[in-house]
Amino acid sequence: MEPFTLLLTILTIICLYYFVKLSFKLSYFEQLKIPHVRPIPLLGNMAPFAFQRMSPMELQQRMYNLFSDAKFFGFYDFMMPMFVIRDPDLISTIAVKQFDHFCDHHGFVNEILDPIAGKNLFNLKGDHWREMRKLLSPSFTSSKMKMMFGLICQCAENFSSFVATQSVETAKTYNMKDLLSRYTNDTVATCAFGIDVDSFKHPNNEFFLLGKKAFNFDSWLAFKFLMHRNFPQLAKLLKMRMFGPKVENFFKDIVATTVKIRDEQGIVRPDMIQLMMETRNKNSGPEYDINEMTAQAFVFFLAGFDTISTAMCFMTYEIGVNPDVQKKLKEEIDDVLRQTNGKPTYEAINGMKYLDAVFNETLRLYPVVSSLDRKCVKETKLPPAIPGGKSITIKPGDSVWFPTYSLQRDPKYYSHPDKFDPDRFLNGDVDNSVYMPFGIGPRICIGNRFAQMQGKVMLFYLLRRCDLEPDIKTRIPMVFNTKMFLMMPDGGFWLKLRAIKSKTLVT
């Protein structure tokens, strides 16, 4: 069946399936007297994105600006009513103080259709989430990060050596998304699965190729994601699997083999699989079988392969188009190389204030996800949305959004919010209540320390060996792709990398 015919058939089914519920759902905010824009049947307030006229981030920004006096407003994510919380104090109340009332996410995987992927930490709810979070948290402490540091440095060395060798004679243009996906693939493979992979020497290794094919969110996967998130009953009716048995079985086989070898040979590594193995034999708490272990390692790979590699692309983009930032960053790198005799340590890289500022400023402009969601599980009263209004009650099943992208670009909280200015993180000009690129409250991203180490080590090793320059394909200023629901630039990430010839490098 042709893609257009298939899409038309699916949309027709959607229209019929939701026709009865449409009137009530699309009048929800009107009944509650909450500020909102009148929705379009089926598309809600997502029409500009559905017709590829506006990216989700730009649409969010437009709605955010439209209700500047409101603590929150209503937004229809297709058929799903969302309470969009603008007020930082109210966000903190919901995400932290009233966490037990808003402890769940809207999942994006059906556990029946995708039995392994559906058990991932993001998808889990209630007590099951609490138990798994408690189990996995020790994998991401500072001490564990320090133990993984050498493994990540080796991946960064492989990456920087490859690009430096390729661009010795002249600068070479790269699709940074491809390069950095290979780097993150290798770091996650070694730190989560205990597998050494070099995707630069072996570009067609199975680990990388499967990840590239399975986790490509600018393809059919993106459509399935939207269906599961916004029309879960229809996705279930159509038996629409997110990943399928090939992907799940691949990761399950890796985890099962890893566990078997470690059990037989007494191998111990500082990673999440090891901690889950140790938990199997404890008397208290749930038992974690291979499927459960695979689910957590699987989502770790998903986040590391796609989401974090995209964040790194934004970092290299801003460094490439801001030569003054690149110059200051290189000076700091040179200082660390002198202090450590060419062998940077975990403490030295973590102590780099300007590198930290560049990392943080990138995630301010381009947060890992443009909005954070929470699902109400206990009836909760919210204050009036607008001055003079009445308080309202959110009921179990209702959803709220925290518009991270818009909050972090609000001139009320950040001067010159669209300017890339790492110095704002050195001058104490940042209010942490409106900086939440990895989330907020108990459901903050469990792997945020790992992601920061991945990004900082990568930048350190890349900039010690190469200069980053804009290419003719580089869009300045950046324009977001209106065809994708994730934050991506139109035309992709393209930069020139030029090997540094004037230094004797200590490797």
Structure notes:
The longest helix is centred in the middle third of the chain and has 32 residues, at 290-321. The chain has 19 helices and 9 strands. The protein has one domain (98-367, 408-499): Orthogonal Bundle (Cytochrome p450). With 507 residues, it is an alpha+beta fold. Helix 14 crosses helix 17 and helix 14 crosses helix 19. Helices cover 50% and strands 8% of the residues.
Helices and strands in order:
Elements: H1 3-25, H2 28-32, H3 47-50, H4 56-66, E1 72-77, E2 80-85, H5 88-97, H6 126-136, H7 142-166, E3 172-175, H8 176-192, H9 206-214, H10 220-230, H11 232-237, H12 245-265, H13 272-280, H14 290-321, H15 323-339, H16 346-350, H17 353-365, E4 372-375, E5 380-382, E6 392-394, E7 399-402, H18 404-407, H19 448-465, E8 466-470, E9 494-499
Parallel strand pairs: 2-7
Antiparallel strand pairs: 1-2, 3-9, 4-7, 5-6, 8-9
Helix pairs in contact: 7-8, 7-19, 8-9, 8-14, 12-14, 14-15, 14-17, 14-19
Tags for this model:
507 residues; alpha+beta; 4-stranded mixed β-sheet; Cytochrome p450
Amino-to-carboxy terminus distance: 54 Å
| Poorly predicted spans | none
Q: How many structural units, i.e. domains?
A: 1
Structural class: alpha+beta
The radius of gyration is 23 Å
Number of helices: 19
Please identify, by name, the CATH architecture: Orthogonal Bundle
Q: Any idea of the CATH class? A: Mainly Alpha
